[in-house]
């Protein structure tokens, strides 16, 4: 018979003693359990002891977390958190260097546990840590343990970051700004400042003032990948905590200092592979940089602004210089206005008498004007060729430069997500962004010439304007999906993807769709589906067996602890546990926690998950909600909460868990994979029918013969 739900069978270890195998009554108070365990080993003063997990993070067992203990767990009898906190509190004040170092090392390890942290902080332990840092007498290993312990203690949010003294903050800053400091201390100091910045604008101002951006740029050029990562994390924290004006000022300074070159050379093209964390920071930096265009994108043109009118006039003057050089007194006002209107019409403005009206729509607002001016000033030959070439065409066939520029700017804003908030989890950045100053403007210059090229290939008229822009959008998105490493490569590929290539791709997709819609093919699809769905199920379970590295996202910062989860080869148990940074595929034996598949009750996703409901911020990040899922398990309905690293992993894990629960796979990836497999299988089955039209109805069965007395007489043939 299975044990009652309130009883778990566990082992308890103690150094120098034979382990005890006991049945833990979950309804029995922990104090009574500890007394029984201590009595079995003849230990007095049971109140001085506590239980903690023997493996993994070695968390102390309390009344609040005891329900997490599973059958087969191995616990250890150890000193109680209050006794340990008291001992270490005294130890870190010792005059003996060895005792002090060992105490700080132990403190850094135990501070991850919330029960111990609470006990240590309640003894004013943080004050002692402040003193060690502020006095500045300890360096090297001792200081590294101190900073590590401080970081872990602050993670529990018992103490506000705003309580830190100015002396302490300046000391941490000095470790960042000094060269003759151990790299581990610099990493911890950068991490502390990164955590500090988002908590209040006052602390943001202090860090921004005390840590020069030049210093962070120096770290980005370092060969130590962890130093690069921590410096980038602090830089991103500063940018996200800044006001719009401060962010613009910081980005302008970083642009002057060629931050993109440092990133392109030392991070993207580094010998070490790019980690998920750094990929996220590069995405955020790209997003923040592009979002500087949002202000101009949302600003309509003011017809009374002399500066904006001058920019508009410069477009006309650059395109029609010879005609604009006529002396002012040659023509009357009406004649001059008529000439200007004619030139603005040639430029492709819809409202040629008042071209400012074309730029009243926001978005793209003044950003379109900025792009046109940039194109005219930085590539004057291409600009003049575009305008003059279309001026000489028939009215209906001319490609309107201004109208195309306005629409193209809007398309680029949508493709690059300008004006949208940064995702907490995304890692999709364009390597070519960091290889080019004025990326958005240079991208526009390439794409506006693409518009003219596509217009000519399509032999378009004014009525085809929307069709041309749809093709251009498709050309840009298809090329960007290939992740070109430079704008030159983007230019080469997007120009190679001409209108005829787009037509071929569309036709291939259409033919494929038409083929798969024939009635006999649809029937064949239905017959193949069960077999292919089983194949997908097996693939999902294999993926769960390989396992995935998950990240715990805290409310204050993105990077936090890592943990790994994988399914046992017999598909009966989910193993999981915390792992260190850099561990790719830990063996099942190293993952201490287990959930039997038989105990799994249901799968929750998105807003239904308890860890998305627990957050008190009120407004949830959409991306996190899309990646969150939870397994409800056990009779008591505990939850194991996940936040998938990518949407792909989310789909594979939710599908795999649904398979284990005996339910249908519901993710969008299932349908995509099924379509791909069906397409391949159908093509293989229909190879012999190439160029043969498949009728919708099966051919009629011929009538039976009038008699069935027919056969070949072999005896006559032999004679």
TrEMBL record:
Annotated signal peptide: none
InterPro entries (UniProt xref): ARM-like, ARM-type_fold, ELMO_ARM, ELMO_dom, ELMO_domain-containing, PH-like_dom_sf, PH_domain
Gene Ontology molecular-function annotations: SH3 domain binding
CDD domains xrefs: PH_ELMO1_CED-12
Any one Gene Ontology BP term: actin filament organization
Coiled-coil region: none
UniProtKB keywords: Apoptosis, Phagocytosis, SH3-binding
Domain named ELMO: residues: 307-480
Superkingdom per UniProt: Eukaryota
PANTHER family xref list: ENGULFMENT AND CELL MOTILITY (PTHR12771), ENGULFMENT AND CELL MOTILITY PROTEIN 3 (PTHR12771:SF16)
Function, in words: Involved in cytoskeletal rearrangements required for phagocytosis of apoptotic cells and cell motility. Acts in association with DOCK1 and CRK. Was initially proposed to be required in complex with DOCK1 to activate Rac Rho small GTPases. May enhance the guanine nucleotide exchange factor (GEF) activity of DOCK1.
UniProt protein name: ELMO3 protein
UniProt gene name: Elmo3
